[in-house]
Amino acid sequence: MDTHYATDTTSYIQQSLNTIVGQLYEVSFAYSPRINQPEATNGISAYSNGSLLDTVTGTGGAVHNWVVYSFIVVGTGLDTIKFAATGIDDSLGGSLDDIRVSVVPLPAAAFLFAPALLGFLGLRRKAQSV
After folding, report:
1. Structural domain range at position 52
2. The total number of structural domains that make up the chain
């Protein structure tokens, strides 16, 4: 992430990314509540271009309990991914790791299916015109 901001109550980090318009991207991250801390201090919200993807929180145990979250977003050309603390202002907060943004590949089957579909539509038109 390239930017970190602190407000009067909580902090956030964000990164702007050059993307391809209309391309699907997977945004994923690992979250764990901070060890031995109450749920009120552990919240983190994830955003894509200002739209909330999810807010995660939990009560911290004796060890980290990492959970990976994943979302599909559509590229707009220049996108911003943001993570914001939502807990109380105590300088603690949840743990965030392994943030990834990956292109969602077009399934290889689509390349095989498209010619077959076009051929079928051609045969159907020919049958209707006879």
Report:
1. 3-129
2. 1
